[in-house]
Design a protein that fits this description.
This is 4-methyl-5(B-hydroxyethyl)-thiazole monophosphate biosynthesis protein. It is built from 7 helices and 11 strands. With 196 residues, it is α/β, with parallel strands linked by helices.
């Protein structure tokens, strides 16, 4: 089942959210943008309005293999106050489904209680929000079914990491090569060939 929830609320960080949707869909992974606002139109931090695919109250959790939480402030703090989202995260962790968050988004995972004793990253300066997690300094942190990333500049790499986790390295490389310039593609292939 390759279908995932991406949570949206007003003031979401557009690069962190929409890069996940774009790249994962390029890999034939279904991502539903789910609004927690009670309306389908959701407006980002920078005034970009998007139309969510559905409202959280309408979804059937059995149809989903994981959840992605973008950052943005106060969006991430609003999301972590939504009991429906926290319950989904807890349930998905119990079922060992994929859980991912970027930038301030990992604070939502901490509030849901799924980071206790686990490795995670968050936007620099917000480490206290991770409560009892093992705070790392990596750009992206993978701890079993939980993947966290530090900020908007890593949105593409987070998407590639998710694709690799869901569909494998071959699909990740295909999407990576479709979304980068050919000079960079050649550089990546050369680095790989040289074992870097």
């Amino acid at each position: 089942m390759d279908r995932y929830i991406l949570i949206l609320t007003d003031t979401f960080e557009e690069v962190e959210a929409l890069t996940q949707v774009d790249y994962l869909r390029r890999a034939d992974i279904k991502v539903d943008m789910i609004s927690i606002t009670g309306k389908l139109q959701v407006t980002s931090n920078r005034g970009i309005t998007v139309l969510a695919d559905d409202l959280i109250e309408n979804i059937n959790l059995k149809e989903y293999a994981g959840i992605i939480i973008p950052g943005g402030l106060p969006a991430a703090f609003d999301i972590r106050e939504d009991k429906r989202v926290l319950e989904i995260i807890k349930k998905f962790d119990e079922e060992h489904k994929l859980i991912s968050a970027i930038c301030a988004g990992p604070s939502v995972l901490a509030k849901a209680g799924v980071l206790s004793g686990r490795n995670a990253v968050i936007y620099p300066g917000m480490e206290d929000e991770l409560l009892d997690a093992n705070v790392k300094e990596d750009a992206i942190c993978v701890d079993d079914n939980i993947i966290t990333a530090r900020g908007a500049g890593l949105a593409g790499e987070l998407a590639y990491t998710l694709i690799r986790k869901i569909k494998g390295k071959v699909q990740e490389k295909q999407v990576r090569f479709m979304s980068v310039d050919y000079l960079l593609r050649d550089f990546i292939l050369k680095e790989e060939k040289n074992g870097k």
